[in-house]
Write a structure and sequence with these properties.
Chain lengths: ~150, ~150, ~150, ~150
């Protein structure tokens, strides 16, 4: 089991700004996806592996709270953390931190379920125990990072 | 005062899909913005007017719950509704409905505050009573639509 | 055969702007797609029909020339026109016109080929004569609109 | 003067795919912007510096030719190269290369002019000789990389 999760870094692109001169709020949802993909890769659960396993993990909910603004060329660290997992549902929490100031800019969460390759909900623990274990481990890592 | 809010319609663009063959979840946040802009225009509070008034209404929070999938070329109705307003904070709730089936696909909310042209928080009721009244009326309309 | 192509209209969304206060240049490419989809629907060649026919029409090239700026809430008319078609390759040209001023803001082109459902290039005239005829007609309409 | 331009790397995000299972063609235009920003930073001409100088470099044209498909999680190298510069107009060419295969996936160009802080066209050589020199050097580097 991995001992620590690395933050994911994103440098803000010009096309992510809007006419208020800041990052458009919809882009944070996309950054969460980038950070989540990176988190799963850190524990060896790449998208390719996910497809081979026949596991689909759709987003069923998202929330985001904007605390301070992020601008073009800013570098942010995004810290994803599994906060809930019971084999059926999954919650990942995110902190977005401005690397220049250390400010916490945004917090958010995404909620997920698990579908098999026929797009049916199923119990990971029973049918994909190795995938179940990955998320159990991520939940442990998430608790340690609290 | 307007008597009823019209739904905003959006036809799904190809570029809004992802490789799962459905609309990428981040786009709903953008549709909320489209519907909110349209809602404000329905009561005469256009962006141009907002700028003239020197009122900025940033998004400070968003949440979204995905219930069923929306696909390319689907037409959705988005029903925005002011659910909270106290002169300092504003909440707008959204329902996304598949026009072909009548299914409720997505629900969500955005939260906002009010800034003056110097990007400072201020009390609408006192400093911009005419804008305050617009949102009071929208809150009334929102209650009626519950 | 349809006698005239209708322009496609797009009202600029806030999220399409960038920090220069204008529409980000990448979005025009997306508007071309919107207008092209609409053009094909006008002649009855919906995406659903395209899929039933087993015809895929990928974009293999794009160009765009920006003449004047478009801003939030502006309404633009996009006029797509088939300018080249020989059964193997297709060119669609676009004019983006500001509805308030009549100004020509942007011109562009997309280039396409035709693939069958196995992602192989093929000759439309021979294998899908009814689809071939649709684009022949669109080429005629395009010439008339010159 | 810098002796060699480094390629810019981009790892494809899930949200950049479309329902064909490949990167949506509009995103390459955004990657060009990422690579161009990076190129200018490599020679010390950051966005901050650009603003301090009062120089605006809008995109006035773009073209792109898609040769092979790029997919989720692929890593591409984008090689930007100044191919034309005369003090009034600027052309940057791009090659997008799949890092796994070495394949040239996409080629493209963006065309730019130079505006001063009042959004007027002006002659760099006369009014901003230090900025003029940066692009002269980039043109030299671009020729060497041909």
């Amino acid at each position: 089991m991995k001992e620590e999760i690395q933050a994911y870094h994103h440098k803000v692109h010009y096309y992510e700004t809007d006419q208020m001169g800041i990052v458009h709020h919809s882009n944070y949802i996309r950054w969460f996806e980038e950070a989540r993909t990176d988190l799963l890769e850190q524990v060896g659960f790449t998208y390719q592996k996910m497809e081979e396993c026949g596991v689909i993990i759709p987003v069923i909910g998202v929330n985001c709270e904007y605390k301070s603004m992020v601008r073009f060329n800013d570098i942010v660290a995004i810290l994803p953390r599994v906060t809930e997992f019971n084999g059926v549902k999954l919650t990942v929490a995110y902190q977005v931190i401005d690397m220049a100031t250390g400010n916490l800019c945004t917090i958010g969460e995404t909620k997920h379920c698990f579908l098999n390759s026929e797009y049916k909900m199923f119990r990971l623990a029973k049918e994909k125990p190795e995938v179940y274990q990955i998320f159990k481990d991520l939940l442990e890592l998430g608790k340690m990072a609290e």
